[in-house]
Amino acid sequence: MIKSFLLVLLVFLLFSCNSRNTQNPPVLSYNINSEGKKEFYQVSHENFVDQFGNPFLNSSVENKVIVENFFFTRCPSICPPMRLNLMDLAHLFEGNPDFIIISHTIDPEYDTPKVLLDYWKNTNTEKNQWVFLNSDRDNLESHAKSLMTSFKTNNQIEDFYHSSYLTLIDQNQRIRGFYNSLIEEELIRLKKDIELLLKEN
To answer: N or C: which terminus of the chain carries fewer CB neighbours within 10 A?
Structure first.
């Protein structure tokens, strides 16, 4: 009797773990309206310029799975380890045309396309695998809000606060997850969710 119970319990646990690993992440890009109902929205990528000085628009990410973050090139604290982990992610999905990493500078005055280009070159990643975007501050703040995050200037103009979280966006421009880029378990979960979304379409 005890052996039978343990066998059933083991099967249940294995099935539960397998279900969690194969279940697609939920859609998180929504607001709650005055009636208490969910209003879903798509993340826009209009009015940005990439590290090559080219316009970056919604059409640039059409049918792609995206990982996005905010950073600035002079960041001395969380940006260096974030960059290393994103480099690992870029190399993992290297050559996959349906996956892209987008990093938004929150210091657009200093981080010109030329500065971003030099920064990108040091990542040793493919041209279309990881893009670094610049925009005006109003557009950056609006975009951050759509990704449910924010950033702010600290004591000095060249110092900023921003989150270490990465946002996962699907082929239909919907948010599907948030992951702390400084925690290994979160990065493992992100990689699995990327693979699930790539299979979704």
So the answer is: N
**pLDDT tens for each residue of 133-151:** 999 989 999 999 999 887 7
Contact 31, 41 (CB under 8 A): yes
User: Which residues have a Cβ under 8 Å from the Cβ of 57 and sit 6 or more positions away?
Assistant: 45, 46, 48
In angstroms, the CA 147 to CA 132 distance is: 17
**H or E element at residue 153:** strand 152-153
Q: How far is the first Cα of the chain from the last one, in angstroms, to the nearest whole number?
A: 46
Cα separations (Å) of 100 from 4, 121, 156, 158?
48, 16, 32, 28
Angle subtended at Cα 10 by Cα 8 and Cα 15, rounded to the nearest 5 degrees: 95
Query: What distance lies between CA 18 and its chain's CA centroid?
Result: 25
Neighbours of 76 (CB within 10 A): 7
pLDDT tens digit sequence for 162-174: 578 999 999 999 9
